[in-house]
Write a structure and sequence with these properties.
about 60 residues, mainly alpha, elongated
Length: about 60
């Protein structure tokens, strides 16, 4: 397991958060929920949209 140094914690990442990175992160999160049975084919679209929108709103705070 990697730990961040104090200097890394203090310096914000200057790379922009892209639409593609939000899509990829949403996919990874939804896949985990599928694996544990919280997301099914019947509710996939709802959960994917909610996850994407939550990550997008959160990312706006970092840009």
């Amino acid at each position: 397991m990697h730990t961040m140094s104090e200097q890394q914690k203090k310096q914000p990442d200057s790379r922009p958060i892209t639409h593609e990175s939000i899509l990829k992160a949403t996919k990874e999160i939804v896949v985990k929920f599928i694996e544990i049975g919280r997301v099914t084919p019947g509710n996939f679209e709802e959960h994917y949209k909610r996850g994407f929108n939550a990550l997008r709103k959160s990312a706006k705070g970092f840009s």
